[in-house]
Design brief:
Aspartate Aminotransferase, domain 2, Aspartate Aminotransferase, domain 1, globular, seven-stranded mixed sheet, four-stranded mixed sheet
């Protein structure tokens, strides 16, 4: 047997024994919150479709209209011939939505973060990244060739000390706005103050804040009313916006630099013009979704009313639609997730390396499309299953 096969088989066996083997579930969506898995209809608390827009008829119609008017594919990169008029219109609207001078549309949030960090920092520069930042930020920082310092999660004092001791020619601080696995929120005001004091850029990944936070769902930065040319804003369009893609909004000088030098953007085919057209509709729907955002708050509050019945497990104090129930044990969290699935409720089990060792969890993702009955079913089922957790077969 070849060396690579022996090695890969040993790795696979290790993942299995550690309770870390993952599987892709094949789903057939039925509604915004219901999917069919293996012939069984279940209510999903697994999606980042926070406003329930992915199945909105107005958005579905907009994609069809966009394809009829502008075609299905762009045909080339933005710098060759793929930058259509509808892309230009979308970028103007994204800049207005984010309250920034300019914007760039991207294929997804991962590509956007790779583009940002590899273009705004390089050799001789320094990147300061929150300990719990998304993998795309981690990878972008590594690829940038800048020196990378990881500061303890949301620890403004530790970051201040790192920035003060830096001799780098250029400094860049990068953080998630809403952390995708804990659901907590970065101290953006304090981070911006540090960047002003230490002459650094602040890159904010608001993947899980856009659509949910701020006036008209315009995101975490707008919620706080922060205005600065130092803020480089990244928002995704595959979560609350119900579609796919991402965008970067920033000072015109920064956007121009990305157009010229961001390899993940320069060498990628432009996104579908049909999708660009639909995204314009998605932004309108987000702006008018105050009632949906209010429903999310009520769902979260009701879920926390059930949490006392989930001891010894702990529901984190998240004010976002991301509601993590910390289980700790890898095998235990998988058993709980499977028990819920048997009751027609799909809540993903999240394990290392996505989260730190010993913090495996059920990641409950709420949507405005969930009904009060859905929340009640989940709360009651978790209380019942947790009370008999010791009898759930391994």
């Amino acid at each position: 047997m070849s060396v690579w096969r022996n090695r890969f088989l040993a790795d696979a066996a290790g993942w299995q024994s550690a309770g870390l083997r993952r599987q892709r579930r094949i789903v057939r969506p039925v509604s915004s919150t219901e999917v069919e898995i293996g012939g069984k209809l279940v209510t999903a608390f697994a999606s980042n479709d926070y406003l329930g827009l992915s199945r909105d008829p107005r958005l579905i119609e907009a994609i069809g209209e966009g394809a009829r008017r502008f075609g299905a594919g762009a045909g080339a990169s933005h710098l060759v011939s793929g930058h259509h008029a509808v892309h230009e219109a979308l970028e103007h609207e994204l800049a207005r939505f984010a309250g920034k001078p300019a914007a760039l549309a991207c294929m997804n949030g991962y590509v956007a973060n790779l583009a940002l960090l590899t273009t705004l920092a390089g050799e001789g520069d320094a990147i300061y990244s929150d300990q719990l930042n998304h993998a795309s930020i981690v990878d972008g920082a590594r690829l940038s060739r800048a020196s990378v310092s990881i500061y303890p999660h949301a620890d403004v004092g530790a970051l201040d000390a790192l920035l003060a001791s830096s001799a780098a020619r250029h400094k860049l601080v990068v953080t998630d706005a809403v952390f995708s696995m804990d659901g907590d929120i970065a101290p953006l005001e304090a981070l911006l103050a540090l960047c002003e004091r230490h002459d650094a850029l602040l890159v904010v990944d608001d993947a899980h804040g856009i659509g949910v936070w701020g006036p008209e769902g315009r995101g975490s930065v707008q919620l706080l009313g922060l205005q600065s040319e130092r803020i480089v804003y990244m928002g995704t369009l595959g979560k609350a916006a119900g579609l796919s893609g991402a965008f970067i909004a920033a000072d015109q000088l920064i956007v121009d630099r990305l157009i010229q030098r961001a390899r993940p953007l320069v060498f990628s085919t432009a996104g579908s013009p049909a999708l660009a057209h639909a995204t314009l509709t998605a932004l309108e729907l987000i702006r008018s979704a105050d009632a949906a955002r209010e429903r999310l708050v009520r769902h979260r509050e009701r879920l926390h009313d059930f949490a006392s019945g989930w001891q010894p497990y702990r529901l984190l104090a998240s004010a976002t639609p991301i509601q993590p129930l910390i289980i700790g044990d890898n095998a235990g969290v998988v058993r709980l997730a499977e028990a819920l699935l048997q009751e027609g409720l799909w809540v993903p089990a999240i394990r290392p390396p996505t989260v730190p060792a010993g913090s495996a969890r059920l990641r409950i993702a709420l949507s405005a499309a969930h009904t009060d009955e859905d929340i009640g079913r989940l709360g009651a089922a978790l209380s019942r299953i947790v009370s008999t957790a010791g009898t759930i077969p391994a």
